[in-house]
Amino acid sequence: MKILNDDSRGIEVASKIIERGCLVAFPTETVYGVGCDVFNEEAVKKVYEIKKRDFSKPLIVGVSEVEQIYELAEVNEVAEKLIKKFFPGPLTLILKRKEIVPKIVTSGLEKVAIRMPDHFVPLELMKRSRKPIVVPSANVSGKPSPTKFEHVIQDLPGIDAVIKGECKIGIESTIVDVTTDPIKILRFGAVPKREIERHTKLDVELSFGEYKTSKPFYLFIGERVREGILKFVSDAESKGLKPLIIAKEDVYGKEVITVGKGKDYVRNIFDAIRRAELMDFDLVILEGFDDPEYGDAVMHRLKMLAGERVIRV
Ligand code: TXA
Ligand code: MG
Description:
Elements: E1 2-4, H1 8-19, E2 24-26, E3 33-35, H2 41-50, E4 60-62, H3 66-72, E5 73-74, H4 77-86, E6 91-97, H5 103-106, E7 111-115, H6 120-129, E8 133-134, H7 149-155, E9 161-163, E10 174-177, E11 184-187, H8 193-200, E12 205-206, E13 217-221, H9 225-238, E14 243-247, E15 256-258, H10 262-278, E16 283-287, H11 295-306, E17 310-312
The structure holds threonylcarbamoyladenylate and magnesium ion (MG).
């Protein structure tokens, strides 16, 4: 591992390392990030691996110039306002991705997260390599984000290089999805909600928080849940993954935890989730729940559990 200073020489060495398809950790104004060339899919794969991060959890793309945002994503009016006001700064925008963004960066989602760090190290690094770089936090998944050089060394001992420096703020960027109406805060962070509201003149909805789960949960909703789940299961199995289904009835001919319908579903669902967490499966599939009395409350929790992995069929 190379330890570099946050001076011109250190940044030059780091940019060469990135050009070679290797990984560099660096300070940003929020927390330390671990970066590589966004367009080098092998390198991006290494970022997920070194962070022990699930491939279903996408990475933020860092840019150093506003024009790069237009190359990577569709920029609507709300996004334009927020970019003008907060970039560079601790705000991440979720935008509709353009084809140029490799799917591995967005975990296959049609949206991409973009931010422009307000810190000379990542900005300079991107300018020298003339490319955007990914900017996820430089910790092992599940641990708090690193705000000191030592944290990065503890979490990512296999990293190719670390640039030493200061993170002024110490908490992560606020994440706002501006593709939805109303726009949504997906993660509270360094830019307060009222600031977003003030500058967009819009009400901002809060998205569901996220539960910490030991494996990914996929939530299926819509008219064709059963067919959707069966197809998803066979796709997963063909990739060598072991899925578990949590369902109202045992109708899949697969591994299922049955929770029953109506009030039974409500009574049993949390227990099923806990059991699923402890069992030896790679991913868990949830049948959505529709009920005049408890539907909203249950779905709120299931959506928190699934995060971005809500599948409409
Ligand atoms: O302040 C920050 O944002 C730091 C610095 C280092 O840039 N980065 C950071 O990245 O916190 P990370 O990977 O630890 O957290 C990014 C969050 C994750 O929860 C991820 O799921 C979400 O952003 N995210 C990324 N792309 C997304 C997308 N296309 N749609 C929804 N959420 C997305
Ligand atoms: Mg993180």
